[in-house]
From TrEMBL:
Protein name: HicB-like antitoxin of toxin-antitoxin system domain-containing protein
Any one GO biological process: regulation of DNA-templated transcription
Protein's organism: Mesorhizobium amorphae CCNWGS0123
Domain of life according to the entry: Bacteria
Span of domain HicB-like antitoxin of toxin-antitoxin system: 4-124
Alphabetical list of InterPro entries matching this protein: Arc_rbn_hlx_hlx (IPR013321), HicB-like (IPR031807), Ribbon_hlx_hlx (IPR010985), TTHA1013/TTHA0281-like (IPR035069)
Pfam families referenced in this protein's UniProt entry, alphabetically: HicB_lk_antitox
Amino acid sequence: MRHYIGLIHKEADSDFGVSFPDFPGVVTAGTSLDDARGMAEEALAFHVEGLVEDGEAIPEPSSLEEVMADKDNLTGVAILVALKTDATKVVRVNVTIPEDVLHQIDQYAERHGYSRSGFLTAAAKKAMRTEAA
């Protein structure tokens, strides 16, 4: 199992944000530190699944020294995020969604570093976790 460095960012009146220096643009957040860590694992897994689907290379994890050598990363607290390689098989599905909602989904996903599929999967898992709680 690979581990990547995630950087936790927290400002007053904000959630705990997590970014990944090895995957620019991939970000997530959680209302608590534990929630942010869980969301970080999911965001990383979804992004890597998308890279695999698209036939793109998965970068080797950077060392803590490499990550912290970048002055832009010094405002975050480093955590290790496990990339779970035992993910289930990805299945293509056909769904019907109103065009305006699909446009909103795509805009949100792009702003937050998700693919459309990654965002819809994350949103569904979050809804199911919320209902189970």
